[in-house]
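tokens incoming
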């Protein structure tokens, strides 16, 4: 499993399938804001991060231009990551609440984090074609993580991307089709529980659409399911 995961990660990092995303991620690295001017940007696609034997999978949208695209680790170096790793720490999935750079000692237990798109997109909006080109990586991850019991989708786009990859991996989506809503959940036919959460973007957290108690409850819900899982 570890060797297969490592090979998939290497394939992801070397990907150049989407010319628009390649140009953008590299352009951002050449012209960073003043506060990051002395840093060397990762400026490549981001592989997943976490425990290769995880039972919890978290799916986000895409790296931030000056977050993961800078630091080289998913949800690292930006406000969204502060919320995510803080919540994971409180729920017992992370050894520390901070995620600053890829060599900061952060470790995840029973949890793995990935994304629908692996490169930072302009305006945080990948195109339909870019989603489709990136989806095979998520499909491969679902094949590798045979011990999954819970999936948390951060935002409706991640929710839709997971269901598309799940179907491509021969999964059956229940009818009527599950609907996205913060805190909503559904048990899929393979006994994996899919939980929905608003994305911890500044647009949601600054406006109060997503509060810390609301966000923390998602991970406590996942923890409770895993405690009962065989």
């Amino acid at each position: 499993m570890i060797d297969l995961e490592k090979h998939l990660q290497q394939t992801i990092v070397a990907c150049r399938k989407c010319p628009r995303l390649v140009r953008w991620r590299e352009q951002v690295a050449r012209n960073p804001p003043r506060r990051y001017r002395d840093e060397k940007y990762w400026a490549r696609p981001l592989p997943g991060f976490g425990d290769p034997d995880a039972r919890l999978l978290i799916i986000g949208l895409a790296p931030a231009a000056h977050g993961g695209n800078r630091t080289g680790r998913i949800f690292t170096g930006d406000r969204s990551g502060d919320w995510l790793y803080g919540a994971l720490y409180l729920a017992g999935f992370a050894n520390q609440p901070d995620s600053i750079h890829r060599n900061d000692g952060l470790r995840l237990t029973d949890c793995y984090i990935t994304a629908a798109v692996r490169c930072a997109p302009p305006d945080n909006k990948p195109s339909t074609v870019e989603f489709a080109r990136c989806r095979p990586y998520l499909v491969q991850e679902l094949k590798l993580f045979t011990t999954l019991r819970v999936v948390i989708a951060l935002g409706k786009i991640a929710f839709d991307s997971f269901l598309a990859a799940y179907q491509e991996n021969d999964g059956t989506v229940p009818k009527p089709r599950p609907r996205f809503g913060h805190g909503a959940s559904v048990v899929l036919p393979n006994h994996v529980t899919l939980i929905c959460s608003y994305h911890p973007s500044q647009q949601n957290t600054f406006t109060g659409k997503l509060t810390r108690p609301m966000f923390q409850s998602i991970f406590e819900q996942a923890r409770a399911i895993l405690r009962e899982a065989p």
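note: The longest strand covers residues 56-60.
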